[in-house]
Amino acid sequence: xxxxxxxxxxxxxxxxxxxxxxxxxxxxxxxxxxxxxxxxxxxxxxxxxxxxxxxxxxxxxxxxxxxxxxxxxxxxxxxxxxxxxxxxxxxxxxxxxxxxxxxxxxxxxxxxxxxxxxxxxxxxxxxxxxxxxxxxx
Length: 137
What we know:
Layout lengths: L1 H23 L2 E17 L5 E13 L5 E10 L2 H9 L4 E9 L11 E9 L2 E7 L8
Parallel strand pairs: 3-5
Antiparallel strand pairs: 1-2, 1-4, 2-3, 4-5, 5-6
């Protein structure tokens, strides 16, 4: 009977760990967003994280009779990327991001995490911070 409970406990822990990984660490999607950088700030009560907003061109209908701009709210894990963004607020950026199914407090307030700057003001960044590419061979 004790062995059965041990197996059940181990199975539940493994299933829970798998679900936690799937929800918070598995990359659901990734892509590039372009627009004018509105702001990047470092904030938080316990975990200080970098949060930012990119204003994209175009308009979308919000409530009836109103017009809103497209906004992309994101988090940044890398302090070097965050510093570059903070120093260039108001400029046009192409940002590469990863989308997770859930946010973690030490990673940021959003499920979108910017991991590289592809270009600034439409020009490839000389000191661009590119995503890490893993060899598949």
